[in-house]
TrEMBL record:
Lineage, opening ranks: Eukaryota, Metazoa, Chordata, Craniata, Vertebrata
Organism of this sequence: Lates calcarifer (Barramundi)
Gene3D superfamilies with a match to the protein in the record: Rhodopsin 7-helix transmembrane proteins (1.20.1070.10)
Gene Ontology BP annotations: blood coagulation; phospholipase C-activating G protein-coupled receptor signaling pathway; positive regulation of Rho protein signal transduction
GN (gene name): P2RY8
Positions of the G-protein coupled receptors family 1 profile domain: 41-291
Protein name: P2Y receptor family member 8
PROSITE patterns: G_PROTEIN_RECEP_F1_1, G_PROTEIN_RECEP_F1_2
Length: 351
């Protein structure tokens, strides 16, 4: 959550931010850049995933789910930009309030999806004998995506059933999701359960699982013979963990600290929390790069698609053959290929 209120009186940190036009402009410019990169990168990635990638392995399904959440954020950010540039004055009416929840649905669905991809990589590389049937794994992947959304929406249900607007007469504005009333939940126990679900269930536990999975993958690959594919897989695993820490950890840690300070000590870290929200949105821009553009083979295919790299028909056929091999090796795709079983065993750990 981005703020708290004890009824009618705001803390000085919140008032200071709402009055600070320079900070509003800086954050809005950051959101503009994020929106542009998000829509271009994730739009292209979605097109490639849906129409240029086959078969739809479990990791591809998870990546489609991740891209959908990123695109949803990209379409909602312009409304947040307009809101901030108008001095934190929400004039779109209550029907548009669900747009503000996309910040949290994106962040937590992204976290859970990254965890699911990590588990899929762990099973495919460290425990390859489990869930060997491709169709079974696809069904599990689809059900997992539905459960992710169900869990996130269940945790955020109090925000979905609450009037998130807050009138500030002294500033002549009506905020949206920047000030939450203490009576939004019936008791401190309910607030504790709400915070625990957001910070520990939707962030800390998935982070620990993701870390375990990728550390296990790195250790497994490090013990094998060194190849370019395996080195790339290790680098990508490190990048995923780094993005997880940079984009998600600051916001969730400050969420917990800020809310505790506001509820019990009438203090606030609102300015810092607001800035970390930009970092959580930044993940939506990085996802296409760390999962797709880190691959040399994918870049070649991308250049071919957008006609930035001319090739002869023979070179194109060779590249497509190389891509088909790569798709069984990518560390973020399932290794079970129905049409190339002969190449599975020697390549299932590589990239």
């Amino acid at each position: 959550m981005t703020g708290n209120s004890n009824g009618t009186k705001l803390d000085n940190a919140t008032l200071s931010l709402l009055k600070d036009g320079n900070t509003s402009i800086i954050i809005s410019v950051a959101y503009m850049i994020i929106t542009a990169v998000n829509l271009v990168g994730n739009g292209l990635s979605m097109w490639i995933l849906l129409f240029r990638t086959s078969p739809k392995t479990p990791s591809i399904i998870f990546m489609i789910n991740l891209t959908l959440t990123d695109l949803a954020l990209g379409t909602a950010l312009p409304f947040q930009i307009a809101y901030q540039l108008q001095g934190y004055n929400w004039n779109l009416g209550p029907r548009m309030l669900p747009l503000t929840l996309i910040f949290y649905t994106n962040m937590y669905c992204s976290i859970l999806t990254l965890t699911a991809i990590g588990i899929d990589r762990y099973l495919g590389i460290v425990r390859p004998m489990l869930f060997r049937q491709t169709r079974e794994r696809r069904s599990i992947a689809i059900i997992s995506c539905l459960l992710m959304w169900g869990l996130v929406l269940s945790v955020l249900y109090p925000l979905m059933t609450t009037d998130l607007t807050f009138d500030i007469p002294e500033l002549g504005i009506t905020t949206c999701f920047d000030v939450l009333k203490t009576n939004m939940l019936p008791s401190m126990a309910a607030w504790a359960a709400f915070l625990f679900s957001m910070v520990f269930v939707l962030f800390l536990f998935p982070f620990c699982v993701t870390t375990f999975c990728y550390v296990s993958v790195i250790r497994k690959l490090a013990r094998d013979s060194k190849t370019v594919q395996k080195e790339r897989a290790i680098r990508l695993a490190f990048i995923v963990l780094l993005v997880f820490i940079i984009c998600f950890a600051p916001n969730n840690i400050l969420l917990l600290i800020h809310t505790v300070l506001r509820l019990f000590y009438k203090k606030s870290l609102y300015m810092a929390y607001k800035l970390t929200l930009c970092f959580s949105c930044l993940n939506s821009c990085i996802d296409p790069f760390i999962y797709y553009f880190a691959s040399r083979e994918f870049r070649q295919k991308l250049r071919h698609i957008v006609n930035l790299h001319s090739q002869s028909s023979a070179d194109s056929m060779k590249m497509e053959h190389k891509e088909s091999i790569y798709s069984t090796q990518c560390p973020f795709e399932g290794q079970e290929r129905e049409h190339s079983k002969m190449s599975l065993m020697p390549q299932r750990e590589g990239m």
